[in-house]
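Something for you to look into today, if you have time. Could you write out one complete protein record for me, on any chain you like? Leave the record below and I will have a look.
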Amino acid sequence: MPAVRARLAALVVPLAAGAAACGSGPTPAHHGRLDVTLREFHLDPTRAEAPAGELDIAARNAGTLAHRLAVGRGRYALAVTATLRPGQSAVLHVRLPAGSYRLFDPLSDYDTLGLYGSLVVR
């Protein structure tokens, strides 16, 4: 039985270390700009943070389907890009007070399929 435990420990320790690395903190906006990539059906970064005030959210469609990027609260969008075909980009210029926001694709049910993230403004 000790040999089995040793083998399990050899597997569990690297897995736990990998999981801890995946749990890194939110991606910060740099100099008033946050870069976001949309694809089927994932938004990168999934967690972001920015200071209160003006923010440019640069959205790039790296997927094979059309996407839009919205920033809002719940299902209510405060700002939305035009529809982005694959390879296209757009910039949302917003002024956000402190609070929690969602980044999501309002097209069809893309956000329920996983194309969403969070933005904390401090």
About this structure: Strands lie at 27-28, 33-39, 42-44, 47-50, 53-61, 70-73, 76-80, 89-96, 99-104, 116-121.
